[in-house]
Predict the 3D structure of the following.
Amino acid sequence: CLTNWQEKSLGDLILVLMAEAVLRVILGWRFLISGLSNVRRWPNPVRTASILFPKGAPVLGFIATVLMVVGGLGVAIGFQTQICSLMLIIFLIPTFNLHFYWLKILPTMVPVVKNAIGDEKAQDYFRSFDRQSFHAHEVGLRDNLVFLAAALYFMVRGSGAYGLDNLMSGWVVRFFKALPKHDRRQIPPKNRPGFN
């Protein structure tokens, strides 16, 4: 029979593990969907890679797409989560430079394109496009920081409670050993973390 405190702690733990699983699935899904979009829109990833890496863009565009698809799928289902999270981190690092590139280039392109548009209504549409595209790259930088932090968390943590890594633990490559488990019963109640 569990005490009220133990029941509350167990309930809180289950909620944390469920929230962690939702975060992992959403993070993986986001990269999987983007990676599959790159497959459908090929050779667009090559053009994007050529902005940062003029030499070897076809190979790097392919590698970026593989990192997104395989890394995203693995994180989403919680399989080889640490390796797949590292794949997402490797993908994300150069994307910061891509956002900086567009934030630097877009303002120089806008006047040229705007002057080439003669129709007033088309210029209004373009002004909206200009604001939105610049804003998208500003937000993209911040989003990438969140993605990077989440991927780093799962690279260290692994899949958590609700991932395939738990069903196939003998096959899982782990970068870090599991943290030692503390027996909360050995800690006096007033000193326990989260004790109210």
About this structure: The CA atoms of residues 2 and 138 lie 50 Å apart. Confidence is low (pLDDT under 50) at residues 192-196.
